[in-house]
Amino acid sequence: MLVLDGKIAAAAVKESLKLKTAQLAAEGKRKPHLAAILVGNNGASETYVASKVKNCEETGFESTLIRLSENIDEAALLSTIHSLNNDPAIDGILVQLPLPKQISEQKVIEAIDPSKDVDGFHPINVGKLVQGLSTFIPATPYGIMLMLEHFNVQTKGKHAIVIGRSNIVGRPISILLSSNVKEGNCTVTVCHSHTPNLKELCLQGDIIVAALGRPGFVTAEMVKPGAVIIDVGITRVEDPTAKKGFRIKGDVAYEEVAAKASAITPVPGGVGLMTIAGLLKNTMQAYEQRVNRS
Ligand code: NAP
């Protein structure tokens, strides 16, 4: 059984980006620059944004973290985005989700200049993804594809079961896995909360992508021997014995499923790290497109 270790695959992506950035510096060029907006102080969002900023620094990118109050109104957030859209020094913009209730996430997503939309959530970029055109692939599905590539996981002709159909993970990974690309060419079944025969479908899966946010949902009895398991789930589960008072759990019952699988991503240390790798790759892509246009 192969552990699809996100530390190893993400380090390889980061190393190649670091070399590219060092080369830019040697040529006297500016570095890629990511601006991250964090609204409020949700604990998980704070952790994710801090990690994104830290990874930018480690890769040699510039990063700017803009912290806004939980009570900020929508117009003020949109105005901040417009300033970043018009700032020639900024290559990529991300707004950490979720946002407070008074703000429409859809309006925020659509306010970001598609050429700086390194999260790949803008409808223009989603449309390009669906049509197989060059675009920013949302960071988590992109990270999964980079993981499959790194470990040379064969996907062509396989049956992939994707559990979850969100715009952030389930929907885009189902499109990518079914696309005519090297880590694609799967036959894909997309499952959601109205899928009645989930266990039977999962048992047919050569690849299972679990992205539903229910800790330990995928158990050994749902998995075909030799299947490849991609666990996207990240849920904080209370645990008074843990230093922080909680542990991070994936959507897969790791131990029992690992005993049956041919390959599996751990949580933590799997897809989460690859998400950051995907974001960094998108930021470099945004930078290169900007530099080539000017
Ligand atoms: P989401 O928007 O809540 O979507 C969850 C999806 O799972 C929905 O499509 C839902 O179906 C489906 N679902 C829920 N319960 C189900 C059940 N019992 N059976 C079948 N399908 C079910 O969540 P998300 O944003 O996609 O995130 C999913 C998980 O991935 C979360 O744990 C999240 O924290 C994690 N995540 C991790 C990363 C990473 O970097 N590793 C990045 C993003 C998200 P309906 O559509 O019918 O409601």
Detailed description of the structure:
With 294 residues, the chain is an alpha/beta fold. It folds into two domains: 28-113, 3-Layer(aba) Sandwich (Rossmann fold), CATH 3.40.50.10860; 139-272, NAD(P)-binding Rossmann-like Domain (Rossmann fold). The chain is 41% helix and 16% strand. The protein has ten helices and eleven strands. It has helices at residues 6-26, 43-59, 74-85, 105-111, 123-130, 139-150, 170-178, 198-203, 254-258, 271-293; strands at residues 2-3, 33-39, 62-68, 92-95, 159-163, 187-191, 207-210, 228-231, 235-238, 246-249, 263-264. The strands form three sheets. Strands 1-11-8-7-5-6 form a six-stranded parallel β-sheet. A three-stranded parallel β-sheet has the order 3-2-4, with helices on both faces. β2 (33-39), α2 (43-59) and β3 form a beta-alpha-beta unit. α1 packs across α6, α1 packs parallel to α10 (271-293) and α6 packs across α7 (170-178). The longest helix has 23 residues, at 271-293. It is globular, with a radius of gyration of 19 Å. The N and C termini lie far apart (48 Å). The relative contact order is 0.16.
Topology overview:
Layout: E1 2-3, H1 6-26, E2 33-39, H2 43-59, E3 62-68, H3 74-85, E4 92-95, H4 105-111, H5 123-130, H6 139-150, E5 159-163, H7 170-178, E6 187-191, H8 198-203, E7 207-210, E8 228-231, E9 235-238, E10 246-249, H9 254-258, E11 263-264, H10 271-293
Parallel strand pairs: 1-11, 2-3, 2-4, 5-6, 5-7, 7-8, 8-11
Antiparallel strand pairs: 9-10
Bound molecules: NADP nicotinamide-adenine-dinucleotide phosphate.
